[in-house]
Amino acid sequence: MTKNDFARKSQVDNGLIDLYSKVGWIVNAIKVFKEVDDPDLEGLECFCDTQRARVKLDNCIFLYTIIACLNFSSPSQGKQMHGKTIKIESPRNQIPVDNALVSMYAKCGNLKDANMLFEMMHQRNMVSFNTMITPYAQHGFGLEELELFKVILDIENEPTNIMFILVLSTRSRTRKVDEGWKYFDSMRQKYDIELEEEHYSCMIYLLAYNVKFKKRAETIIIQILQRSYYKIDSA
Questions:
Q1: Any residues with CB less than 8 A from the CB of 52 and at least 6 apart, and which?
Q2: Considering the chain, what is the average pLDDT of its residues?
Q3: Dihedral of CA 120/67/143/207: which sign?
Q4: CB of 56 within 8 A of CB of 92?
Q5: Three-state SS annotation for the chain
Q6: How do residues 18-52 score in pLDDT, each as one tens digit?
Q7: Sign of CA dihedral 16, 20, 21, 26
Q8: Angle (nearest 5°) at CA 140 between 118 and 213
Q9: pLDDT tens digits for range 133-165
Q10: Are 27 and 52 in contact (CB under 8 A)?
Q11: What does pTM read for this prediction?
């Protein structure tokens, strides 16, 4: 049954978890829970069954449970999971677990706890930075977003395509033309990142409000037209 596509449906997965939990086959319940693509509330309840059975938990289980809390915007359950992760000593998957917790707090609008957890992380990857930068941009914390972006550049990490969209978008909203243009130029010249329509749109929005930069805006528009022509001609 596990080889059949239908077996991967959440109802079947949750049913198996529930069945295994009730008959005491906790190891099997955990195995299925780890393989669930999109754990839902029923899966979260089944996790509680495995906990009551005093099964030793690891970060892999916590990761999927936190994702379930994210799907249901359940900060109370998420905080409980956060507390439990602190009690166990399991370095495996620690960064993904912390990233999921930061994302959970940020999604619930609790940027204070999200930032506190982010600062406490012993190790971070680019997902960690992106997870924290995104809510800063969404909630209008442009200064905090830029400072975090500078940290990424200072530690010589390669910023992502998405990060530049967020940063350029914030610069366009705050009319920081010089900063926006600097980051826009650095994408190709320093980081060899291909410019997408979203990057061009942010720059046009930024430059359109300042007559001083009219020629720069026209240059970008020409680049967009050339890019579109190349795509059509290549097709």
A1: none
A2: 76
A3: positive
A4: no
A5: CCCCHHHHCHHHHHHHHHHHHHCCCHHHHHHHHHHCCCCCHHHHHHHHHHHHCCCCCCHHHHHHHHHHHHHCCCHHHHHHHHHHHHHCCCCCCHHHHHHHHHHHHHHCCCHHHHHHHHHHCCCCCHHHHHHHHHHHHHCCCHHHHHHHHHHHHHCCCCCCHHHHHHHHHHHHHCCCHHHHHHHHHHHHHCCCCCCCHHHHHHHHHHHCCCHHHHHHHHHHHHHHHHHHHHHHHHC
A6: 566 455 454 566 567 666 655 555 556 666 666 66
A7: negative
A8: 120
A9: 999 988 888 889 889 998 888 887 788 898 999
A10: no
A11: 0.70
Sequence letter at residue 73: S
Q: Which two tokens stand for residue 90?
A: 């399991």
Place of tokens 């509680």: 48
Q: Which residue has the tokens 């000593």?
A: 89
> What is the spatial distance between Cα 91 and Cα 102, in angstroms, rounded to a whole number?
17
Structure token digits, residue 109:
């609008």
